[in-house]
Design a protein that fits this description.
single chain; 252 residues; alpha+beta; Arc Repressor Mutant, subunit A; Chorismate lyase; six-stranded antiparallel beta sheet; two-stranded antiparallel ribbon; 30% helix; elongated
Length: 252
């Protein structure tokens, strides 16, 4: 029992020391750690004890162990906060992230049938289609397509939404957002979106479908965001009477 406790104390001490060095910048994001044999000798422990410490740090999202290549400091991930009725860019900027937006398209289009269902609208109804790529720290991270119904669409047709959020643009023209429902599921990049996000097709992503409603509870915006799983992570806080989450099988 005493031997097991000493071993646990050792690997946790090593994990804490490496964590402090990573957080202080001694080992910056993307940097390779020294070889495991070198690290085990430095800390005066066996390879097995060192590997336990590395597993702890990998579980904490600080390290990435790549077979045949070595152990690397993981790139920091931006958080997508569930339970926040704010625009994506607003959430990230509040976390201190540098966010920029590339507008890929902003024009009147007819609602596809699958989007119309989300908006409680008729297929073929005219709406404003807004397509954007979000860059976090200069790296493409999110592809967003938003469909905005009339009359809000008419008011936003000439608006510049490259610097702020869609919610802020809606507020600026007097459209009050009341609530939103959101479905989040795992997915993989298709060929077209992969090219926009500069990643290989099949890269893991989170796909968010959000319907935003006004004071009269009518649907105003349907938004689909495709977020790189390598750049984003999902976070939420739960309380006894707060955020409600429901698990269901994905539609096929």
């Amino acid at each position: 029992m005493a031997t097991n406790q000493r071993q646990e104390s050792k690997y946790r001490t090593i994990a804490a020391d490496l964590s402090a060095k990573i957080r202080s910048g001694d080992y910056p994001p993307g940097a390779a750690l020294p070889p495991q044999r070198e690290l085990s000798a430095t800390y005066g422990v066996t390879l097995a004890t060192l590997r336990q410490a590395l597993q702890v740090l990998e579980g904490d999202g600080l390290l990435s162990q790549q077979p045949g290549r070595g152990t690397f400091v993981a790139e920091p991930k931006a958080a997508y906060l569930l339970g926040s009725l704010r625009g994506f860019a607003e959430d990230l900027r509040a976390q201190g992230q540098t966010v920029s937006t590339e507008i890929l398209g902003q024009a009147q289009r007819r609602l596809p049938a699958w989007v119309a269902v989300h908006l409680d609208a008729e297929a073929g109804e005219r709406a404003l289609r807004l397509e954007r790529t979000r860059l976090v720290a200069g790296r493409p991270a999110v592809h967003q397509v938003s469909w905005i119904r009339e009359p809000a669409a008419h008011q936003l047709r000439a608006a510049d939404v490259s610097a702020g959020s869609l919610y802020a643009a809606l507020a600026a023209v007097g459209v009050v957002v009341h609530r939103a429902t959101e479905t989040l599921r795992p997915g993989q990049l298709d060929k077209a979106t992969a090219a926009l996000l500069r990643q290989p097709p099949g890269t893991p992503v989170f796909v968010s479908d959000r319907v935003t409603r006004g004071l009269d509870d009518a649907a105003i915006v349907f938004d689909r965001a495709t977020m790189l799983g390598t750049v984003m992570e999902i976070r939420t806080e739960r309380a006894a009477a707060g955020l409600s989450m429901r698990w269901s099988r994905p539609e096929r």
